[in-house]
Structures are given as C-alpha cells and as structure tokens.
Amino acid sequence: GVVISVLTAIGDLAEVNGVKIQPWMGELLAILLEMLGDASSPEKRGVALWALGQLVGATGFVVRPYNQYPALLDTLINFLKTEQQPIIRRETIRVLGLLGALDPYKHKMNLGQIDTQVDSTALLSMTDLKSEAEA
C-alpha cells in the first residue's frame, strides 16, 4: 500500500539526486531499519531493503550506518540465513556490498562486546591511523 509506495519513492529520489537527500539520511535510515525488522510484511521488508541500497549507493553513506545502527549488520546477515525469497537474498548481498567492509574490532565495540574503557590508545585501526595522519 502506501508505505511501499513511499519507500519506493524514497529509493527513486535517492537514485535521481542522492546528494540532496543526505541531510535526512539519519531519519531515513531509522525508518528503513524499523521496516526491515517488520516480520509481518515480507513485501515491505523487501522494498525497505531496496530503498536502503538505493540511499547508500546514491549518497556514498557507507560504513557509517553500521556505526550508527550496530544491529544493522546482524539484521542483514540474518536475512541471508533465513530469507527464502531469492530476490531478497540477492538484494541483501547487494546492500552488504554497497555498505562496504567493517572493521570487526570496531563492530564489536559498537555492539558493546568490547570494553572501550580499557586503554584503547594501543589499538587503532588502519582507518584511524590514516585519519590522524591526514589531520
């Protein structure tokens, strides 16, 4: 119905002019992730997954969604494990590819599985070192 049409419009809008939609990425991601968790409507989840891929691909908003929404990676991997429809599995793989690689250590930190209060100055990822070198 209406929700699916709105999600499709968001995905199409991102494809046409992704740069202009960047200021709303935080809000849009929150809505899309809520839709991805809606087990009552597989069609809604499929369109939300497609729209997420469109947004990420058009805006270049990669890896950051994992940091803002630590459960996203687990949600997508769970889709691969449980989803029966090949089209949704394929779209999940596409979205994972668009989102990019995530440092496993940082992901565990985001999930709260690693204590960040420990002296973390000795543990820096390559992206952190690169950022510090550019600063």
Automatic annotation (TrEMBL):
The keyword Transmembrane does not apply. The keyword Nucleus does not apply. Signal peptide: none annotated. It holds the Pfam family mTOR_dom. GO terms for molecular function: ATP binding; protein serine/threonine kinase activity. It catalyses: L-threonyl-[protein] + ATP = O-phospho-L-threonyl-[protein] + ADP + H(+). It is an enzyme of class 2 (transferase). Keywords: ATP-binding, Kinase, Nucleotide-binding, Serine/threonine-protein kinase, Transferase. Its EC number is 2.7.11.1. Residues 62-135 form the Serine/threonine-protein kinase mTOR domain. Belongs to the PI3/PI4-kinase family. This is Serine/threonine-protein kinase TOR. It comes from Homalodisca liturata.
